[in-house]
Description:
This protein is mainly α. It has 2 domains: 29-175, no CATH class; 184-331, no CATH class. 66% of the residues lie in helices and 1% in strands. It has helices at residues 2-26, 32-50, 56-60, 68-72, 95-114, 118-135, 143-156, 165-174, 184-210, 224-227, 230-235, 253-273, 280-297, 301-311, 317-338, and strands at residues 214-215, 221-222. A two-stranded antiparallel ribbon has the order 1-2. Helix 6 runs antiparallel to helix 7 and helix 7 runs antiparallel to helix 9 (184-210). The longest helix has 27 residues, at 184-210. The radius of gyration is 24 Å and the shape is globular. The protein starts with a helix and ends with a helix.
Amino acid sequence: METLSVNNYFKRLTQAFGGGWNRFWYTPSDPLPLCLIRVVTGLFALLFVFSYTADLSYFFAQGGLLPFELTEQYPPYNAVYNPARLSYLTYLDEPLTLQIAHWTGIGVLCLFTVGYFSRVTAVLGLIITLSYIQRAPLLTSEFEPLLAALQFYLCLGPCGARLSVDRYLVDRKRQSNLEEKKYFSATLANRLIQVHLCIVAAMMGLAKISGPGEIVGAQEWYDPWGTGEAVWWMISRPQSRLFESLTLLREYPYLVAAWTHLIVLVELIFPILIWNRMARPLILVLGTMTWFSLMLISGIAPFYALLLVASISFVTPRRISGWFCKASLNEHNTSLDRA
């Protein structure tokens, strides 16, 4: 009897765990958040690739500043395993061929952004982004790996099902709007973005409280995040701040300290409380405020902007639809006022 009850317990346990796992990852959902992420991520990918336009030949052409041999000497790589070998830019060293490949890539990313042949252009867009990252690892920052990760997750889901040329063409062909279909792959891709965002936030928070700080003496370590001065350190660097007026905060040390500790607190609680439905709106607001403030002072604004983009994965499709409905209503009212 006891053996039977134990077996029954483990059977129910595995069924409950399996059911919860399937509901979390594979419950069909509206792909609207994923499609909105596609639009914004595509714009960032375009900005990233387009930033190489002026210096394309200067970097990658034969005799350029970043020859393939240099990447073999980059510390994480070696002659046996070198990701630059997987970049199509490695095999193009003539200015003309580089320009053709460059503008073709920009064209593909434009198609991906507007959602034309989304399934194909999503994969091609990821290849294009990775080619630039792998060809020039010395030029990468925190922004590029997160951009590539978002593009990879978009390849897994129906990122062109809404807000896309693909959807417009299908609706036009059938002369009526389609019923909003739900996809399990939309849930899978969205969950991966959510989990990735939580891991990034947790790692940033843990790094701030566990880092050794800066050495200021023979045997003295100074931790600006622990003392509450890290925000001031970022503000006071002329090469990384966007607004000169923020230096006025030197008159308010307690405000700077509160800002610093709030950043650490939000990054630590975000991965935990964001999964609670009641706490989610508050945590999303705090996360948005935190990462937007770091956009202004950190010097790596695109990275924190992508964190904001990834946060869209936690917004419900109904809420996003409400945004577009309000925008359409405001536009309609404006047109009526003009008439």
